[in-house]
Amino acid sequence: MGDLAGRLAALRGRIDDACRRAGRETGEVALLAVSKTFPAEAVQEAYEAGQRCFGESRQQEAAPKIEVLPTDIEWHFIGGLQRNKARKVVAAFPVIHSVDSLRLAEYLDRVAGEEGKRPKIYLEVNIAGEASKGGFSAKELLASAGALAGFRDVEITGLMAIPPDDAEAARRWFAATRELRDRLRVESGLALTGLSMGMSADFEDAVLEGSTVVRVGSALFGYRSYPA
Ligand SMILES: *Cc1c(COP(=O)(O)O)cnc(C)c1O
């Protein structure tokens, strides 16, 4: 792992600097450490350096890590979510960043009620309208405002977006995501305080545009040897 504690501190410092440049309080932006593909030992090392929120994208990969790691870790689900995994995900993850359709949100609301859970969810928006990506289109999202306001057992925290793979252009997609959130807030009456945006390559731009949680993997744990 090398100096994971040092990388964590450096990352936190860069987030705080971006907050200052944006005129925001440094405590406003949470760091989600994306531990997918990395072993429980790496998570433990980050935990010992003070990190408490970790992101995983596959339920089967996460389960054995969750099993052996400290129980005060807050696990966030960030991957594609199939219905047949929804119950296990709701049981283990208090925060889900990757809710990509109204149908899935409705299903999670039902499952959460049945399981006695109240997960925080982010609605994933396909902000640039890319054919290769899932997620709500802006239009679908605004058309869903009424339905979203009626959920009982999921707490709709805000929006999540992964902009196109072009660091130069990322900032304007982050701004577009924030603007869409502002419109949905008006349409739905929901508070929608959360914006899950920014990864290793672009989290500073995301913070400048209002991100409240950055999801950082490789800048903390190193390069992944296989994609997840
Ligand atoms: C893997 C992943 C990340 C972290 O990506 P890095 O570029 O390694 O920081 C963030 N968000 C999601 C949804 C991911 O799948």
UniProtKB/TrEMBL annotation:
This protein's UniProt keywords: Pyridoxal phosphate
Keyword Kinase: no
Coiled-coil ranges from the UniProt annotation: none
The keyword Methyltransferase is assigned to this record: no
Gene3D superfamilies the UniProt entry points to: Alanine racemase (3.20.20.10)
Record family assignment: Belongs to the pyridoxal phosphate-binding protein YggS/PROSC family.
Protein's UniProt name: Pyridoxal phosphate homeostasis protein
